[in-house]
Amino acid sequence: MESDIAITSLKESQIEAAGELMARAFFDDPLVVYMYPEENERKRLTPWHFTAFVRYTYFFGEVYTTTGIPLGTAVWFPPSLNTGEVEMTPERLQQAGLDKAPEVLGAEPFQRFNRVCDYVEQFHPKEVPGPHWFLPLLGVDPPNQGQGVGSALLRPVLERADRDALPVYLWTAKERNVPFYEQQGFEVVTASVEPISGIRFWTCRRMPRSLTT
Questions:
Q1: What local confidence, expressed as pLDDT, does residue 181 receive?
Q2: N or C: which end of the chain has fewer CB within 10 A?
Q3: Segments in the chain below pLDDT 70
Q4: Whole-angstrom Cα distance, residue 157 to residue 167?
Q5: Long-range contacts of 127-132 (CB under 8 A, 24+ apart)
């Protein structure tokens, strides 16, 4: 049960394990498959990509996982970074190692990734123009999916967002994720297709819930 799953902040020593977990969780995600249609390449390179992104968010955002053995990870950009769009400066990218992404991941796959993200991100500042929480990644290790881990990982920030009267925003390229997020109080704002890749995506926004009954 979700209420029995304890959540804690990710430790720096857990960053690599969290990246590998995310690579497993997103292995069949349409955007990841679009980057690496060949499975062996996907297995080889996506752990580096997710680890670097988790490291970036560990330094400049907030990352949550389960206590004990990590079963999943939630990666957040807090309101201080979200006044319309997330700014990933060259200095921050270098600190997290993400500046090496084109070299490590391959120029063409990285270009495909950026093209889709840039297209979808154009909706972000329009749909939540003020301070808000942004969830770029939520992943649960496949053997532990469907057991309430994802809901538990969202809980700390959703509660803070409600307390501070702030919206929460995300987008997903996997249709089966949409009902899950709707159960957490999100509503679909945009459902569309990135024109070059043909990837379908859904932007989702959760407005703060009243703390009064």
A1: 98
A2: C
A3: 1-3, 80-87, 211-213
A4: 11
A5: 127/169, 127/189, 127/190, 127/203, 127/205, 128/82, 128/167, 128/169, 128/205, 129/84, 130/83, 130/167, 131/79, 131/80, 131/82, 131/83, 131/166, 132/79, 132/82, 132/161, 132/166, 132/167, 132/168, 132/169
Helices and strands, number each (H, E), in the chain: 9, 7
Residue 75 has what pLDDT? 97
Say what the pLDDT of residue 213 is: 43
3-state secondary structure of 79: helix
Q: Which residues pair with 75 in a beta bridge?
A: 63, 137
Query: Using only C-alpha atoms, what is the Rg of the chain?
Result: 16
pLDDT at 47: 97
Determine the residue type at 162. Answer: D
pTM: 0.91
- According to DSSP, the residues that pair with 200 across neighbouring strands are 193
Residue 81: how many other CB atoms lie within 10 Å: 18
CA distance readout (Å), 19 to 13, 53, 59, 63, 147: 12, 8, 14, 11, 21
Contact (CB, 8 A) for 96 and 12: no
Q: What tokens appear for 184 in the block? A: 């957490």
